[in-house]
Amino acid sequence: MADADSSPAPRPAHPYPLARPGYGKRTAPEQAPRRRGDFAHLRPREASIAAFVDRLPEGAAMDAKTLAAHLPDYGQAACLTALRRLSEAGHLRRVTERIQGDGGSWHWVTRSHFSRTARDDVWWTAVLAGNVPAPQQQPQSQPQSQPSARPARSQAYDALASAGRTDPRMTLSAAECAALEELAAEWLARGVSVPELVRGLTGGLPPEVHCAGAFARRRLVDKMPPEMVVEPTVAPALLRILECTVCRAPGRPEALPGGICRDCRGEPAPHRAHGVSPDGVRARAAAVRAALDARPYVRRGR
């Protein structure tokens, strides 16, 4: 069996080129740590090329011609065959994706998503649809508290304590600050700044305040600001079209098992019976992309 690091082709002296901005290699999520034997299940040539691709930076060119130019042991046809086998083994998917550029305009890019860990069609379909599970957080060890350590005071507590410095009539004790802390925190949660909170407690006071704690509670309750209304944000629709790794013919995930179309798998294609060629399929896919780009919400984004 091949070793993941046993036979990667040596890199040339000149740096490996990046694809055009937005194109090229994309590392799939949920990668296992790199280790010896990652590609031992592949043939020696595919294992060597996979180890080379695994170390390429994000955005690196992923076409067979560029790979062949930097892998002296393999020609363009060999690299294309290797990409096909990497796709069938679950390491690679080629996708055309609609993204928004810096100027606000939308355009289509082709990306090659590479996974060091082999994945099946179900996993690739979910990830390319944007259903990426959140990474699990590693539990952090809690530092041991020092004896007699003073606990950190909240922003709400500090605001209450500072009211007496603004106006001595509103001087609150530590117990009163602790008792009113939750009400003051609610003011801050509703978008009120600390200076505004202090002004709310000290502005327009009567000549004498007999009980600062009771007076502050009354103001915090009676003058409680309304809750903030957060307008929901609508994320732009994620538009991705899976392509055959070999010939780049577009298709639905279920029509491209292993990322390979029927023609490249050597199977009879139903569309041939109706006189529709692969070029016709690609032309219709281009028309679909153009129609998507012409939708009203896209023009508004421009």
Please, could you describe this protein's structure?
This protein is α+β, with helices and mostly antiparallel strands. The chain has two domains: 24-130 and 238-301, no CATH class; 155-222, no CATH class. Helices cover 37% and strands 9% of the residues. The chain has helices spanning 44-54, 64-70, 76-88, 121-128, 155-166, 174-189, 194-202, 212-222, 262-265, 278-293, 296-301, and strands spanning 24-27, 92-100, 106-114, 240-243. A four-stranded mixed sheet has the order 1-3-2-4. The protein is elongated, with a radius of gyration of 31 Å.
Average predicted local confidence, pLDDT: 80
Count of strand segments = 4
Order of helices and strands: EHHHEEHHHHHEHHH
What is the rounded Rg?
31 Å
Largest sheet strand order: 1-3-2-4
Number of helices: 11
Uncertain runs: 1-12, 134-143, 297-302
* Residues in helix, %: 25-40%
How many distinct domains?
Answer: 2
Question: How much β-strand is present in the residues?
Answer: 5-15%
Largest sheet: 4 strands, mixed
Structural class: alpha+beta
* Distance separating the two termini: 53 Å
The coarse silhouette is elongated
Output the keywords:
single chain, 302 residues, alpha+beta, 2 domains, 4-stranded mixed β-sheet, 11 helices, elongated, disordered N terminus
